[in-house]
Design goal:
Blueprint (H helix, E strand, L loop, with lengths): L2 H24 L2 E7 L2 E7 L4 H7 L9 E3 L10 E6 L2 E7 L2 E7 L4 H7 L9 E3 L11 E5 L1 E12 L3 E5 L8 E5 L4 E12 L2 E14 L4 E5 L4 E3 L5 E15 L3 H4 L21 E4 L9 E6 L7 E7 L8 E5 L3 H7 L2 E8 L14
Parallel strand pairs: 1-4, 5-8, 10-14, 16-20, 17-19
Antiparallel strand pairs: 1-2, 3-4, 5-6, 7-8, 9-12, 10-16, 11-14, 12-13, 15-16, 16-21, 17-20, 18-19, 18-21
C-alpha cells in the first residue's frame, strides 16, 4: 500500500476510536440509590437498574421491591428506591410460616402470600387494618355444618289437688304421651375444632300430652327453709340450667337483647324459662330438687327457650361453671297461689 493510500486508513481508525469513546461517554449516568435511611450517589455506565444495583454491591433479598424495576433501562440521571421486605408470621391453626413483604396492610399481605379467605373465615388483625407491632397475622378457617337430631319431648305430670281424696292418695285421670321433635343444630368449627353447637331450628312433629294426676294433699308447701306457702298445682319437670355466655344464650355483650328475657326483664338468679303452654309466664314458682342437690327455690317464670318444650324448665344460674355442673335433673315445680318478694328469688347461685 502506498503512503498516499495509508492516510484514509488511519483516518478511519481515528474516527472509530473517537466514536467509541463518544458512545461510552453517552452511557455515563449519575444515579442516586435510596435504601431505607441510607442514600448513595454514584456514577455508573450500567444500562439497567439491576446492573446498577450490582455495581453498587446492593444485594436484593426475598420480597424486596425496587422502584423502578430491575429491568428498567437507564437513559439519564435516575433515583432508585430499594424497599426492604420484613418478615411476617402467618399463623393458621397449628402451623406458622414466615412471609417477607414490603406491604403493611393485612389484606394486601394475604393477597401477596396467595392466601384466600372464604366468607366465614376470620383474620386477626382485620384485612383493612395495618399489621400489628408483633408482625403476626392469625388466620382462622371457619366451617359450618348442620346436624339433624330426633329428640323425645317427655310429657309432664300435672298434679291436680283435690279434697275428694285423702292426703297422700293419688288417682290417674289421663295418661301422658311423649312428643317428638326434630332439632337442627348448627355446628361451628375453627381450624377443624368444634367450638360451638347451637340449636338452629326445632320442628315438633308430635306435641307431648301431659299426664294428669289427682292428689289428695293439703295445698301447703313447706320450703327447705321452713317457710309455708300455698300453691295451685305441682308439676314434675326435667330441669337444665343456662347463663349469659354466648354458648348458652347465643348473644354477645353489646347486643341490645343480651341478658333480656322473653318478658323484657333482666335475667337474674331466680328467673326461669318455661313452656308457656304448661306454665303461664309471670307465674311465681318454687323449684324443689328430687335428689341431693339443694332446692333452686323461689323463682319467676319470665323467659322461654326454643328447646324448652313440655315439661322442661331452664333455671338461670349466673355462674357459668355452676350452670354447666348443674346438668340435667328432675325437680318438682310448685305453681304458687300467692305472690313472693323479689328478695326471695336467690336462685341456685346463693
Amino acid at each position: 500500500m502506498t503512503q498516499k493510500g495509508l492516510k484514509p486508513f488511519f483516518l478511519l481508525i481515528a474516527i472509530g476510536l473517537i466514536g467509541t469513546m463518544g458512545v461510552k461517554a453517552g452511557f455515563k449516568h449519575d444515579i442516586t440509590i435510596e435504601e431505607e435511611s441510607q442514600t448513595v450517589t454514584m456514577t455508573t455506565f450500567s444500562q439497567t437498574v439491576g446492573a446498577a444495583l450490582t455495581h453498587a454491591d446492593i444485594e436484593l433479598r426475598e420480597g424486596d421491591v425496587v422502584i423502578p424495576s430491575e429491568e428498567t433501562r437507564i437513559t439519564g440521571d435516575l433515583t432508585i428506591r430499594v424497599l426492604r421486605a420484613k418478615a411476617v408470621s402467618l399463623v393458621e391453626g397449628e402451623g406458622t410460616r414466615t412471609f417477607f413483604t414490603t406491604e403493611t396492610q393485612v389484606g394486601k399481605i394475604l393477597a401477596a402470600a396467595g392466601i384466600e379467605l372464604d366468607d366465614n373465615d376470620q383474620v386477626y388483625p382485620r384485612k383493612s387494618e395495618q399489621i400489628a407491632l408483633d408482625r403476626k397475622i392469625e388466620i382462622v378457617r371457619v366451617d359450618v355444618d348442620y346436624e339433624e337430631v330426633s329428640e323425645t319431648l317427655h310429657h309432664s305430670t300435672v298434679y291436680k289437688l283435690t279434697e275428694d281424696l285423702e292426703p297422700g292418695k293419688t288417682q290417674l285421670l289421663s295418661e301422658g304421651e311423649d312428643g317428638l321433635s326434630t332439632c337442627t343444630f348448627k355446628n361451628v368449627y375453627e381450624n377443624g375444632v368444634l367450638v360451638s353447637r347451637q340449636l338452629d331450628d326445632q320442628v315438633v312433629s308430635r306435641e307431648p300430652i301431659a299426664e294428669i294426676v289427682e292428689e289428695g294433699l293439703d295445698k301447703l308447701l313447706v320450703t327447705s327453709r321452713g317457710m309455708p306457702f300455698r300453691y295451685k298445682e305441682m308439676i314434675v319437670m326435667r330441669a337444665t340450667a343456662y347463663d349469659l355466655s354466648y354458648e348458652s344464650c347465643g348473644k354477645y355483650p353489646g347486643d341490645p337483647a343480651y341478658g333480656i328475657t322473653y318478658s323484657g326483664t333482666k335475667a337474674r338468679p331466680g328467673v326461669v324459662a318455661v313452656d308457656p303452654r304448661v306454665i303461664k309466664l309471670g307465674s311465681n314458682l318454687y323449684v324443689e330438687s328430687l335428689d341431693s342437690m339443694r332446692d333452686y327455690g323461689f323463682s319467676s317464670a319470665e323467659d322461654t327457650g326454643s328447646a324448652i318444650k313440655g315439661n322442661r324448665i331452664d333455671l338461670f344460674i349466673e355462674n357459668r361453671s355452676q350452670a354447666l355442673r348443674y346438668g340435667t335433673r328432675y325437680v318438682r315445680v310448685y305453681v304458687l297461689d300467692e305472690p313472693i318478694d323479689e328478695n326471695m328469688m336467690i336462685g341456685y347461685a346463693n
